[in-house]
Structures are given as structure tokens and as C-alpha cells.
Amino acid sequence: MRYWDSSALIPLLLTEPRTPEILEIYRQDPAMAVWCLTPYEIWGAIARRRKEGRLRSPDVRTLRVRLSALARDWTVVRDPDAIGKTAFRILDVYGLGPAQAIQISAALAIVGGSADEIPFVTLDDLIAQAAIAEGLSIMP
Q1: What's the domain range around 133?
Q2: How many CB atoms are located within 10 Å of the residue 104 CB?
Q3: Residue 33's domain is classified under what CATH number?
């Protein structure tokens, strides 16, 4: 199992420059853990692309089906109280945005004492730097 943030999941749905690399990580281990609000972050990115004219309505409908299929097997982290406490600390220490801090907090919650065994998959450089400082192993 790996913890995935939304930046790494989007290339599984949309063709982007790093899609082949992310697909390979997924193929190696399709078991995914995510924060319970990650689907909304993903959908926000898709909606933004549609509004910008980079996606058409038929494509958006297809993406909704693909996102639902991908999410069926996710392990979802749902402990907002514990995650919130850690997120406050991460916000203070690293100066990240709230969603970024929550992603790291959720990853820390799912790995518990097994940070070496459950990698954090992210394409967000700021999240990656803070996650490494928190003891998480990062992919790619």
C-alpha cells in the first residue's frame, strides 16, 4: 500500500507528462490510501481545466466514471481530529497551504510507525520536502 495525494492521482486520470511514471508506480502496487477529501481536490482540478476550455463535457463525464472506479478500492483516512492536530503543527512549521498540510497529516496517520513501509506518492515539491522532513519516504 502507498499513500497518494491528489497531485499524483490526477495523472492516472488525465494524460500528463508524468503519467507513464505514475502508472508504473500504480502497477507495482495498486493498493492506495487517500485522505477522505482527496476526490474533491481531484475534481476541483478537473473542473478548473473544463472551465479553462482544456476539457470538454464528454471528457468530464468519462473522468467522473474513471475517478469513481479508481476510488472503489481506496483505503480512506477519516480521522479529522487527529489529522487536524498534526496539520496545525505542519502549517506552523512548513508554511504550506491547508490542503497540503492535511495531505501530509493523513499520510502520517496511515503510516503510523511504518514510514519506511508505506511510501507517500506526490508530485508536489513543497509537500515532498515537508513530508521528507516529517520522516516519510517519497515516491517518485
Answers
A1: 2-139
A2: 28
A3: 3.40.50.1010
The answer to whether the pTM exceeds 0.90 is: yes
Q: How many domains does the chain have?
A: 1
Q: How confident is the model at residue 3 (pLDDT cuts 50, 70, 90)?
A: very high
Q: CB within 8 A of 11, min separation 6: which ones?
A: 18, 19, 22, 23, 123
CA distances from 67 to 62, 95, 134 (A): 9, 30, 29
> Are 109 and 83 in contact, with CB atoms under 8 Å apart?
yes
Residue 89 has pLDDT above 90, yes or no: yes
What pLDDT was estimated at residue 114? 67
Pairing relation of β-strands 32-35 and 138-139? unpaired
Q: State the pLDDT confidence band at 115, using cuts at 50, 70 and 90.
A: low
Q: Dihedral sign, CA of 129, 132, 136, 138?
A: positive
